[in-house]
Amino acid sequence: AYSRLPTVGIGRERLYVNQLSQAELDELSNKRPTLTYGQAKQAPPSDFIPAHVAFDKKVLKFDAYFQEDVPISTEEHFRIRQVGIYYYLEDDSMSVMEPVVENSGIPQGKLIKRQRMPKNDRGDHYHWKDLNRGMNITIYGKTFRIIDCDPFTQVFLESQGIELNPPEKMIFDPYTELRKMPMRMYVTPSDFDQLRQFLAFDKQVLRFYATWDDTKNMFGENRSFIIHYYLADDTVEVRELHERNDGRDPFPLLIKRQRLPKTLVDKAKTFPRCVLEISAQEVLEWYTAKDFAVGKPITLLGRTFFIYDCDEFTRKFYRETFGIADFQPVDVKKPPPEETIPPYNGYGFLEDSLQNCFSLLPQPPRKNFIKMLENDRKVLRYQVALESPNAEDRKRRFILSYFLSTDMMSIYEPPVRNSGIIGGKYLGKTKVPKPGSTTDNPIYYEPADLTIGATVEVFGHRFIITDADEYVLNYMESNAESFPAATLQSLRDHFAPRRAAVQAAESQLADGTGSQEREEIVKQVQEQLKHHNYLSNSSMREAFLHHDKDGSGFLDKAEFFALCERFNLPVSDELVNKKCIKPGAHGLHFYNKIILDGRRGPKQLPNGAFKQTLLTGYYSKGYFIIRAGLG
Description:
By secondary structure, the protein is of the alpha+beta class. It has five domains: about 10-50, no CATH class; about 60-175, PH-domain like; about 195-320, PH-domain like (Roll); about 360-490, Roll (PH-domain like); about 510-630, no CATH class. The chain contains 16 helices and 24 strands. Helix 11 crosses helix 12.
């Protein structure tokens, strides 16, 4: 027995026995005569590069073949199989790959997986120094003949000082070459060679796109299909095209691949098809490729299909075989039904009703939020009278409010005692269409249409505008470019007498009692009203406005005292007699303004509406001035 020295070290690095190492060689090269030349300078050690980095993705490729015996065959005795031998420089491993040959009947591909190939029984492995062209190499009992290598392998081996043998020619398999020879021509008594048809048209299929219209029957549909005609054996297959959520089971085939009869014999009418298959004795003519054409119907097993298109291979086949070039596809898609919007039934807004026709879950219509923010709480108020043949209805007065943020209108009837008519809300907030407006083109009333004396038709009722809030004129004057000149002028003419009377009273006040005395009188009247809690009476202002029928801003003294007595106002006799009852007193003047904190100067609420009011007054030159202020 003897001990064998190891040939592979740590990391599978090859060990060279009885040879000097690289470190010993470097040490010997540095030893020189030190007495003559002094101490020698040592050469710097070379950089160490591991094999998996230096030879990463570097593979040597050799072309080879091996011979395999075929003992059980009368046509071949041996087989030549071509392979490729790959040598991986990073770990000295090898693999043998056999290229796949179509229709060979042999499992091919990876013949020997990647590993270190044993060279002999002593445990040696093949190295790239052992490989060369024109040599045999035995791996696991199979002898491979290396005939050539790729350019990278040739350059690498020559750079390492290996002299390569000349390349050899590849030996081909004789049986494979025999199969490549042209087939022998046979003269058969048959007019048609089915084998030739199969070999010539194998894997060639004509594809047609067709529809089956079964809408005439109950619960019938118009379904789409694909008709495949196999040229190899003249069989036909019908496949169904499934759509998403069509409610049908996913059966791919409507008619399985088979030959379909075109014309049957007379006795075939009583042929028991439910238990027997149709043979050639019952069929006079079968379907062929000539019977299929784009734009024509075809009946297959009782179902009539309409062919509306085909693929590019089918067009090419018909063009080369039958000379047919007309393949204009037919548009079988039905146009979508026209969406007819049902007529408006009068309930709700027109925009809300339209949303029910656009989606299954109605969405609220889009609003103009910018307009709503700019015109928030801006309301134009008008006094309207009902146009009616009834005299009692003509006396009724209403307040029409136009909301600028939403272009809606509302009508309110102030209650009148002993009139026999219950007042209150006459019309809720809604958009009012103008006469002649249709559901397709709705036209609604706008502020430009609301002029003094204009007629507004609200759902069959006609109203005449008789008066307006002074805020309407102020708003239109501030936005004069958005309104017609005729609308603005009508409001100016209507408010002209009222403004003239106010200016005249203010000019007289400027020459009379001083501001300090007026403010003192105002405070006295306010204190009396607050003491008796008369500020919550909201109908007080309406009563004064109602008695000022001519809109001049003046009230007679008798009417003033009558109103004070009606509302039980605590009028101080000393104050009124001292300040108001004097010779030359023409009457009582009433401001149609709102005075904040009792200060002089008219101010209007943002939305033009008059809230809870109180009366303040002072005397000047025979006039008792009544103001409406905030409570």
